[in-house]
From TrEMBL:
SUPFAM superfamilies, per database record: CheY-like
Source organism of the structure: Kordia aestuariivivens
Lineage summary: Bacteria, Pseudomonadati, Bacteroidota, Flavobacteriia, Flavobacteriales
Domain Response regulatory span(s) in chain numbering: 3-117
Keywords, sorted A to Z: Phosphoprotein
Protein name: Response regulator transcription factor
Statement: the UniProt record of this protein carries the keyword Phosphoprotein: yes
Domain of life the protein comes from: Bacteria
InterPro entries: CheY-like_superfamily (IPR011006), LytR-like (IPR046947), LytTR_DNA-bd_dom (IPR007492), Sig_transdc_resp-reg_receiver (IPR001789)
Positions carrying 4-aspartylphosphate: 55
HTH LytTR-type domain residues: 142-243
Length: 247
């Protein structure tokens, strides 16, 4: 059996989630429900659950407040629930957290719990801290996992990103190249900034670091590196850069 706790400040949302779990997942026992930070911390501490269904926004704080008040070693897994469909979803996907979008759908719960059954993992504190820092930076940073550590990088410090198969090389103002395990399209979705533009299928550039460009499709970046735009996209990219620089 899997013991679970629901942390949710809306009783109707809690009851809805509870009904789906009882109907479709008899192997999960709900050990309790809490609607505020203090009660949530106390309940998790006393019940020692395998899973915590955790709402990101609570009336008196957030799910982050709950986790921050617990011991650094958390033997349970967290399944975030959220009504936000924009950055939080992309960030959670990027950090490979389990999460459910509200209103919760039965098929989504099944998919998430199936993944949990396969992994049966505990909560990753380093991953959580990187995720939390990225959200609190108000979409101005990206966090890269490299050489067994999480590195936070401001968008403004990224010069350009270059595809390398299923990986992406991220070049920054410190003269370093960070290697992300995410492909370039995923990096583009995470950054989601008007200052970044896909000038080539293999290059995503920070337009604020374009020092010079020519009608022949040559971009000179702030670090001195040059990027050649493909002939097929050359006119479109050059016209876009011209308009951007004139603003």
């Amino acid at each position: 059996m899997i013991n679970a706790i629901i942390i949710e400040d809306e009783k109707s949302s809690m009851e809805y989630l509870l009904s789906i779990l009882k109907k479709n997942h008899p192997n999960i026992t709900i050990c309790g429900w809490a609607s505020d930070v203090d009660a949530a911390v106390a309940l998790i501490t006393s019940k020692d659950p395998d899973i915590v269904f955790l709402d990101i926004q609570l009336n008196d704080g957030s799910g982050f407040d709950v986790l921050d008040r617990l011991e650094s070693s958390m033997p349970f897994e967290v399944i975030f629930t959220t009504g936000f469909l924009d950055y939080k979803e992309r960030a959670m996907d990027y950090f490979a957290f389990y999460y459910l979008n509200k209103p919760v759908q039965e098929d989504e719960i099944k998919k998430v719990l199936n993944m949990y059954e396969l992994k049966r993992s505990a909560f990753d504190m380093r991953k959580y801290q990187a995720f939390k820092n990225q959200l609190e930076s108000k979409n101005h940073t990206i966090t890269i996992f490299e050489r067994n550590e999480y590195i936070s990088l401001k968008f403004s410090d990224i010069i350009y990103c270059e595809a390398g198969g299923n990986y992406t090389h991220i070049y920054n103002t410190k003269g370093k190249s960070l290697l992300s395990s995410k492909h370039l399209k995923k990096i583009e979705d995470i950054i989601d900034s008007t200052d970044f533009y896909r000038v080539h299928r293999s290059f995503l550039v920070n337009l604020t670091h374009v020092k010079e460009f020519t009608r022949d499709g040559l971009l000179v970046m702030s670090d001195g590196n040059e990027i050649i735009i493909s002939i097929r996209n050359r006119k479109k990219v050059v016209d876009f850069l011209t308009d951007y620089m004139e603003k």
